[in-house]
User: Fold this.
Amino acid sequence: MIFRRIIGYLWQLSDVLLFISAMVVLDYTAFRINATLGWFVISLILFVLGWLVEVISERKRGDS
Assistant:
């Protein structure tokens, strides 16, 4: 029982860390190609993150 809960938390943590690292690599690669593309990718990443926060908060029925 407790091991399932611990593994669940570790899975969620690894999911978040892998998502963040993917965004960092994407942004780094875009800046290596072109500075304008890098700034565009940053704005796109922030837009996607903001949208995800709204979707998650809507599922939880508000900000609480």
